[in-house]
Design goal:
Layout (H helix, E strand, L loop, with lengths): L7 E5 L5 E6 L4 E5 L3 E4 L3 E7 L9 H14 L5 E7 L5 E6 L4 E7 L6 E4 L4 E5 L3 E6 L3 H6 L5 E6 L3 E7 L2 E6 L4 E4 L4 E5 L3 E6 L3 H6 L5 E6 L2 E6 L3 H10 L15 H6 L5
Antiparallel strand pairs: 1-2, 2-7, 3-6, 3-10, 4-7, 5-6, 8-13, 9-12, 9-16, 10-13, 11-12, 14-19, 15-18, 16-19, 17-18
Length: 265
């Protein structure tokens, strides 16, 4: 078990991970709808309207604004709170929705704010705010892969995000630049400058197969990168589906081509 000033937790599994959170009496964790896996007796589940942080939510209008922000980032209007109403420590477990890794973010040590891709948030200690982060630069919003809106996690507790494939964490020094495929960004700290950069070159642009732009991240700060964005996985699955482009009748080699690339049946 890993000790933290907010909640204790442990991450289980390899490719399909889950996070087990230990709650002290009257302690609460919040999570996205649909991420619940299991919980001990005496853990009470409550549905919350908005992000559950209780910050800047004065009256119905405040709650509506909080919920609306979550809807813009592609999340549900509701979150779920899990509270230990017993007299002993209890556990609740949340699962990642697709193959990949769960990343533990200690917001206290990360200066209170992390910006991440829109569907990355999994669960957190109650009090962590899940909001929206607008990309101020027009080019970044149009061509940055994540659009104008990303998620921001604010607070001083533990938060957990998930991403596809293997996760690489890099610490960028002041002025250090990292160029990344736009879909491979998972999260970065607030001091990192996020921009886009044109790949350049006619051959690279037309035949490179990597799109027209890189994501450009400039330090100082931390960056988390995923090896398999869910959008890339989904597009490959679709390509092999009934409506995909990979049909034997449309292939030059047909069934022979499938045998050559190991897809013969």
């Amino acid at each position: 078990m890993i000790d933290n000033h907010q909640i204790d937790y442990r991450i289980l599994g390899e490719e399909m991970q889950c996070v087990e959170i230990e709650l002290d009496p009257q302690e609460t964790a919040i999570a996205e709808s649909g991420s619940f896996m299991m919980m001990d007796q005496d853990v009470r589940m409550d549905t919350l309207f908005g992000d559950g942080s209780n910050k800047n939510e004065t009256g119905f209008f405040g709650k509506l604004m909080s919920a609306g922000k979550r809807l813009i980032t592609g999340e549900s209007l509701f979150m779920t709170a899990y509270t230990n109403i017993g007299n002993e420590k209890k556990r609740v477990t949340f699962a990642s929705p697709y193959p990949g890794k769960i990343i533990a973010l200690d917001l206290y040590r990360l200066n209170g704010k992390v910006i991440c891709q829109k569907d990355a948030f999994l669960c957190a200690a109650k009090g962590v705010s899940v909001g929206i982060e607008f990309q101020r630069k027009l080019g970044t919003g149009l061509f940055g892969g994540e659009g104008f809106i990303m998620q921001k996690l604010e607070g001083d507790g533990m938060a957990f995000v998930h991403a596809g494939g293997h996760i690489i964490e890099k610490e960028l020094k002041h002025g250090e630049v990292l160029r990344i495929d736009t879909g491979c960004i998972v999260a970065f700290t607030q001091d990192v400058d996020y921009d886009i950069e044109f790949i350049g070159g006619i051959k690279n642009t037309i035949f490179g197969g990597e799109g027209f732009f890189f994501a450009k991240l400039q330090g100082p700060g931390k960056v988390w990168i995923q090896s398999l964005p869910i959008s890339r996985l989904a597009s490959r699955i679709m390509a092999y589906g009934p409506m995909g482009s990979r049909k034997e009748e449309g292939s030059i080699l047909g069934g022979l081509g499938n045998l050559l690339d190991g897809d013969g049946r």
